[in-house]
């Protein structure tokens, strides 16, 4: 925004491009705005990509950092024990990530491929971008708008390079995220890999962690889901740039469908595994509560028999519950409200899913030829 403002192409006076964008968000077609050029703020597909590109980088780096620190985070909540077996499996996980992630020369190759893809998309947008068709009018045809595009390399080469650079960063981290998700997905589908990294999970009462100790893992899954939403929104903008050429749109459509379905499948598989382990912990806690109640009852009877008489002939009973009995009571209360997934606030969690549903609806409309 600052760079385009410095070149005087951030906005155009009298151009109501944002109104058309708002109509698209509300799933209805608005009137074309009165614009004589394509300034940055009315180039909605590029504005969207300028937001999704840095988010892709931030999301990937954050997911990677949280994945590498997931085991210590789960140990702090008490879900994983701090023992030699957990430490050994944690080292295996770190080595696995370090060896397989695209780093070093692999990252350079990935960046080069991302740059070529971005340049190709830039040229397609300049030739047949949907923004020019949306803003065109009898007084201002598409050819005139293309000559007055804020990122036209013939008029503003610095802005063109900057546009391609930002897009390259977004594509690079989107591909890196896809590689990371593929590795995690292969781990989830491989029994041998799952067995080699099968951590021993313990019960964490709700009063210590509202998600029963799973808070770091749930936050990581929700961040992956947000990354999926970001990818879907990016592909909506990409399709707006590929208005002509059935082959280009078919390839992009297959890429978008594969990416969204793969990401959603990974999120669902991860939540399913967390749910299974969580229910296994519940079954273990149920058995422990049953055994604890029997032991507590036996201990209470023993204390009753051993109570000491006082001067007036009455007896003094120890009515204060032991720490073990308190833990049993708290565990029994947790069992009464044990959710299928260890999410502290399920309605809020469902509300967080809504943006993804909307993004997928918009992407589906775009793939099927509807207005985006």
Automatic annotation (TrEMBL):
The protein's name in its UniProt record: Uncharacterized protein
Transmembrane segments: 39-61, 104-122, 159-184, 212-239, 251-272
Keyword Nucleus included in the entry's annotation: no
Compositional bias of kind Basic and acidic residues: 292-304
Assigned keywords, A-Z: Membrane, Transmembrane, Transmembrane helix
Biased composition (Basic residues): 305-317
Residue span of region Disordered: 292-319
């Amino acid at each position: 925004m600052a760079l385009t403002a410095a070149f005087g192409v951030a906005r155009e006076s009298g151009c109501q491009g944002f109104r058309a964008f708002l109509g698209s968000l509300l799933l209805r077609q608005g009137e074309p705005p009165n614009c004589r050029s394509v300034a940055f703020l009315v180039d909605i597909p590029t504005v969207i990509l300028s937001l999704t590109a840095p988010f892709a980088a931030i999301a990937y780096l954050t997911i990677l950092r949280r994945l590498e620190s997931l085991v210590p985070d789960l140990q702090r909540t008490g879900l994983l024990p701090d023992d030699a077996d957990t430490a050994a499996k944690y080292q295996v996980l770190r080595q696995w990530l370090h060896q397989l992630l695209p780093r070093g020369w692999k990252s350079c190759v990935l960046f080069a491929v991302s740059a070529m893809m971005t340049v190709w998309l830039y040229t397609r947008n300049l030739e047949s971008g949907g923004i020019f068709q949306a803003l065109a009018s009898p007084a201002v045809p598409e050819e005139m708008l293309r000559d007055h595009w804020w990122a036209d390399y013939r008029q503003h080469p610095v802005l063109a390079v900057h546009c391609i650079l930002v897009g390259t960063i977004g594509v690079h981290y989107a591909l890196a995220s896809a590689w990371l998700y593929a590795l995690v997905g292969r781990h989830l589908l491989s029994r041998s890999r799952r067995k080699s990294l099968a951590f021993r999970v313990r019960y964490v009462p709700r009063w210590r962690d509202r998600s029963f100790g799973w808070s770091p893992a749930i936050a990581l899954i929700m961040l992956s889901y947000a990354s999926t939403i970001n990818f879907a929104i990016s592909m909506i903008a990409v399709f707006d740039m590929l208005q002509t050429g059935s082959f280009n749109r078919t390839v992009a459509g297959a890429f978008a469908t594969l990416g969204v379905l793969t990401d959603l499948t990974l999120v669902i598989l991860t939540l399913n595994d967390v749910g299974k382990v969580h229910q296994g912990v519940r079954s273990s806690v149920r058995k422990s509560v049953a055994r604890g109640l029997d032991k507590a009852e036996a201990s209470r009877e023993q204390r009753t028999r051993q109570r000491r008489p006082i001067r007036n002939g009455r007896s003094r009973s120890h009515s204060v519950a032991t720490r073990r009995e308190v833990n049993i009571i708290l565990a029994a209360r947790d069992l009464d409200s044990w959710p299928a997934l260890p999410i502290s606030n399920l309605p809020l969690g469902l509300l967080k899913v809504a943006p993804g549903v909307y993004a997928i609806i918009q992407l589906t409309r775009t793939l099927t030829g509807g207005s985006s």
